[in-house]
Amino acid sequence: MPPEISVIVPVYNTEPYLPGCVDSILSQTVPNFELILVDDGSPDNCGRLCDEYALRDDRIRVLHQTNQGQAAARNHAMAIARGWWVCFVDSDDAIHPQMLEKLKQAAEESGAPIAMCRMLEAPELPPDFFAPAEAGWERLSMAEKPLADQFDAGKYPGWVACAKLLRRELVEDYLFQPGRVYEDNEAVCHWIVAAKTVASVPLSLYYYRTNPDSTTQSRFALKKLDYLWALERIILFYDSVGYPELCRRFCGLYAEAASGYYNRVRQELGDSETAKKIRRSAWRLTRRIAFTKPQLETMLCELNPGLARLYWLLEGAARTLKEQGVSGLAGKIKKHLGKGEGQ
Predict the structure, then answer these.
(1) Which of 34, 191, 252, 294 is deepest in the core (most CB within 10 A)?
(2) In this structure, what CATH number is given to the domain that contains residue 107?
(3) Domain limits at 179?
(4) Last residue of one domain, picked from the residues 209, 233, 258
(5) What is the spatial distance between Cα 147 and Cα 141, in angstroms, rounded to a whole number?
């Protein structure tokens, strides 16, 4: 009998954590699943560990590839996956023994093509994480208004592929973009809109290992610019499906990120050419999408300070003209010129 669920784990340079990840998957309370481990050209002993696990458990299949990144690894696993359902797990994380059971139950009872649970984010696995869990589920609409409400509440379900059970065809219809990071952000928004509904299980059944060093200041990496790529793709997607409120919210994220990244590339890397590319990409996007005035002002002030000074001068003149008329504007100009002569 073919497996009902395909669990896909891209593996790269996580030798200390891989056994814990694999053991947590093999301990699932649902019997009929397969585990596909994709060794993404890992430089440590992960490839050997994957093969050893496959020899001990016939539910495991292993793919070895040259290093191509997480997106390509997941896509290659999708090409051989046999389950009707797909679940993605990162190789330094772990899942609760009942996660697949609870998500499958929620999906089947609700009729939703996606079931998701909460993530527990911590640097170390809590000792009580594997304790028995009981909970129901809630069916969430992925129409724009409820999805925007989820975004505003900090519960937007489209950030990551993990902690979800997905109908296989949803993923096959929109695979990950190879060679990118933040590829989850870009792909999952397509899945949740296509799904129309998501079953949410209010339990932290997925353990996400955080890096304690990630909060310290470090040299800016150009790969982080893929976040702007992901946000742009999300904005264009939500615009194409007629979700203007979601589009506007992601435009706000884009305006802040583009401004911050532009300055970091210039100041930390001294890379003026890449900074110019960020600026050009931002202005191209504003010609396609209607950013709000505050969002445009945020980017203008950071991406082009000289033009921003002219903008605020004209903005002030327009406001004076509206409030005080031509005489008021003339008086203000005269006063300003008088100050200039006295200097």
Answers:
(1) 191
(2) 3.90.550.10
(3) 5-209
(4) 209
(5) 7
Same domain, 169 and 27: yes
Q: What is the pTM of this model?
A: 0.87
Of 240, 210, 243, 24, the closest CA to residue 122 belongs to 210
Closest Cα to residue 198, out of 169, 233, 173, 167? Answer: 167
Cα 161 from Cα 316, distance rounded (Å): 47
The alpha carbon of residue 94 and the mean position of all alpha carbons in its chain are separated, in whole angstroms, by: 19
**Where does the pLDDT of residue 213 fall: very low under 50, low under 70, confident under 90, or very high at 90 and above?**
very low
Q: What percentage of the chain's residues is helix, strand, coil (to nearest 5)? A: 55, 15, 30
CB 22 within 8 A of CB 54: no
Token pair of 166 as six digits: 């997905």
Smallest CA-to-CA distance from 63 within 86, 83, 88, 35 is with 35
Is the residue at 327 inside a domain? no
d(CA 76, CA 7): 13
Estimate the crossing angle of helix 293-303 against helix 272-288, to 10 degrees. 160
User: Residues 139, 233: one domain?
Assistant: no
105 and 149 inside one domain: yes
Beta bridge partners of 206: 95, 119
Which string of DSSP letters, residue by residue, matches 113-125? SEEEEEEEEESS-
Q: What is the pLDDT of residues 23-58, one digit of tens each?
A: 999 999 998 999 999 999 999 999 999 999 999 999
Are 44 and 186 within one domain?
Answer: yes
Number of domains present in the structure of the chain: 2
